[in-house]
Design brief:
253 residues, alpha+beta, Pseudouridine synthase, 22% helix, 28% strand
Amino acid sequence: MIEATTVDPRPLTVLYRDEHVVAIDKPAGLQVHRSRISAEDSDFVLQRLRDQIGQLLYPVHRLDRPTSGVLLFALTPDAARALTAQFQARSPRRRYLAIVRGYTELEGRIERPLRNAPDKPARDAVTCYRRLATVELPYAVSRYPTSRYSLVDVRLHTGRHHQIRRHFNHISHPVIGDTTYGQGAHNRLFREEFAIHRLLLHAHYLRVQHPVTEQPLIVSAPLPPEFERLSDRFGWHHVRQELADDWNCNCNE
């Protein structure tokens, strides 16, 4: 299994902080806060960051445990209310980087309702993406003599449970390292050939309206070491510049 990532014990990397909000680069493998599923865990972002900066924190959105990247917290109740309202209204712009199986289309829109839990009704879910790079590797994972993969920049327009992972599995391009919805043979290849022991999904960009100044607040997270290593190995050097550019897709804002 790849998702059982060893979490870096060093202090969390703060990407932005003022008196109202703080944003960090969440490590893969670390849960944001205690939940029914993670009741036996003792290490969470919320407690770590609270102890690190010496302030109370108010979660306003979340990232799945195996996903790394930009995670924003409010530092006051008023800021929390304002930011939560933005996420409920779907106004923040959230972008993720993922490596998926196969060659995707150059760009696409995935619109498929999802349930957040088996006993909950399906709700609308929209994901857009653009393909940044591809690679063909000389490894026979299935019946073909080679294996193909795509690097995609993903725009998330709704926030359903495991939305990106489920949507890309639906279009037959599962995220590498996904032990829930992915394909074990491809996960094994990346583990054995490239020492990748995590889900290759990273929240690299978040744009919100600052809860007090009402100005755009843009926070970016650098590529994790695993993405850096694969980019060098696959010749994806141009990607760093492309990630710095914002883009529009055919999804409604």
